[in-house]
Amino acid sequence: MESRLTVNLEKMSQVANSALYLLVIAFFLLGHFMSFYFHFLTVTFFMLTLINVYYLYIQKHHALLSNFGFMAQIRYMIESIGPEFRQYLYMSDTEEKPFNRIERSEVYRKAKNSDSSSAFGSLSAFDHREIKLRHSMFPVEKSTLNSFELTFAQERSIPNVFTITKPFMISAMSYGALSSNAVRALARGAKKSNIPMNTGEGGYPKHHLKEGCDLIFQMGTAKFGVRNEDGTLNDAKLETIATLPEVKMIEIKLSQGAKPGKGGLLPKEKISEEISELRGVPMDKDVISPPAHKECTSPLETLKFIRRVQEISQLPVGIKLCLGRLDEFSDLIIKMTSQKIHPDYIVIDGAEGGTGAAPKPFMDDIGVPIFKALPEVQKILKTHGLRDKLKLIASGKLINAGKHFVALSLGADAVYTARGFMLAIGCIQAMQCNSNTCPVGVTSHNPKLLRGLDINQKSERVANYIHNLWHDHEEMLASMGMHNHQELSESNLYIPAHY
Ligand SMILES: Cc1cc2nc3c(=O)[nH]c(=O)nc-3n(C[C@H](O)[C@H](O)[C@H](O)COP(=O)(O)O)c2cc1C
Hints:
Elements: H1 9-33, H2 38-58, H3 63-68, H4 70-90, H5 101-112, E1 132-133, E2 150-152, E3 162-164, E4 168-170, H6 180-193, E5 197-198, H7 206-209, E6 215-219, H8 235-242, E7 247-253, E8 265-266, H9 273-279, E9 287-288, H10 299-313, E10 317-321, H11 326-339, E11 345-349, H12 360-365, H13 370-383, E12 391-395, H14 401-409, E13 414-417, H15 419-424, H16 447-450, H17 455-479, E14 493-494
Bound molecules: flavin mononucleotide.
Flavin mononucleotide binds next to helix 15.
């Protein structure tokens, strides 16, 4: 006969609920006959009894509390600390999501400049489902590698082209989603290492500008910082931002991987006075950006808008999107060719991308993942003769050099990472970006939590992460027998047949 040790909550709660009444009576009698001090306990247990009566007979929200009283509250308490227990005690190194401990540790080690070699064997799964890189039988000397250069808007021959010297950049994360200290630590690190940082859709880049790094100003669908009251583009405001010497490119966000087809969401808990001023929004309401730009209602209108932004800004202009319906994307590219209007770059953000806040179905089930999207995008661009006219940037969990190389081999010219850089400045994946309670101050505006994020120290970590990523890039390129990143192509990938 099967014997199981089970917790009989019903019996336990009956005993506990009756015990409460008995304790009140017992301490009342003790207080009355022995010492007045027992009444402190009488009052305590009496209050507990009242709460228990409320749970059992009055509140209707929680069935467990109605059925079992305060004993059920213990379950809620344990459940609330479950994630921390699982993360620290029970989950294996490869189990956590979105980034497991091995992936996070690699970033932490790079950011702290600690030895990142490991022994005995890889802890990653070799389960035949992963794309791998093919090395060469004839590796080259690192000293023979060529330097990296990628110039945006070269094809349009405008005076303000922008050149990057490493094929990775800090992806869009707004001030609002990130704290001011986090923005400044990232911007200072970017400046030290000479890579650009995307401002995200948070409006005027006040905190970024304090650090003087190269910026890509992003315009989300709400156009924070460059909007008219009705949400359309204010040309004069855009021109002012575009003439800031730090602003090197403008990015029009059409959609992003974590919530494609859905506007951004900034919960009211995170709207400080300053954020409300920089964005031009009230403090007492969640800020919901529209799902699309008012100006972009069709492919032709979208192209007109891109041209308008190029003309106002006189800078390279890119668009960011998560790949969805292929017919629509093809149509947009076909119109680019026929109208002779194209952005200077396209960012493809994989469905696995992160965000400060998004509804779960959008995060889980909508959009094409980056390694599936890139070949499709590459094919469409080539078919319609546009591949040589613009640059392609990829993002979506590309936090190490190996993943960068897969994306570059699948057609990207450069990659963006957002959460890689969050980890570098101390993010512990507490998954609280939407609640102003981030325990390490990366996404919280609570001054007490911000205190712990030292801008100078964390900017060093950003610089270390960049330096060590670049070191891996050079080592890997040499092992693949190549001298330039531009040589990477699908032929140096092992792609499983059923991938
Ligand atoms: C906290 C946070 C805030 C973000 N804010 C923006 C934003 O303002 N605009 C945007 O286009 N993407 C935003 N993203 C998405 C990232 O820029 C990026 O596309 C996505 O997370 C994939 O990169 P990753 O996997 O390296 O994080 C945000 C992501 C995070 C985690």
